[in-house]
Specification:
- This protein is an all-alpha fold.
- The protein has a domain at 46-92.
- 81% of the residues lie in helices and 0% in strands.
- Helix 2 runs antiparallel to helix 3 (71-92).
């Protein structure tokens, strides 16, 4: 096809082919914004259960006057639950 084209047009055809090939390869890679968004989702998946567990633990300790008897274990439980949830989410992606 390019044998009968002038040299300027051959370069143009080659450039278009290269650009099309780059686009095909780029579609397989996630964008920076997508990766950044996924990091944010992972962060929230760990932080939200930890904060909920922390709030429940502080409330229980305040009601029962028990120092940090409930806060520490519930915080560890919340972080563990959040990490497990994030791990499962990564597996689905």
């Amino acid at each position: 096809m390019t044998e009968d084209l002038p040299p300027e047009q051959e370069r143009l055809v080659d450039a278009v082919k290269q650009r099309a090939e780059r686009r095909r390869r780029a579609r397989g890679l996630p964008s920076f914004a997508r990766n950044f968004g996924q990091i944010g989702v992972l962060g929230w998946q760990v932080v939200v259960p930890a904060l909920i567990a922390l709030a429940i633990g502080r409330w229980l300790d305040h009601r029962l006057s028990s120092g940090i008897f409930w806060t520490a274990p519930l915080l560890i439980l919340g972080v563990s639950l959040g990490c497990w949830s994030a791990w499962k989410w990564i597996g689905r992606q």
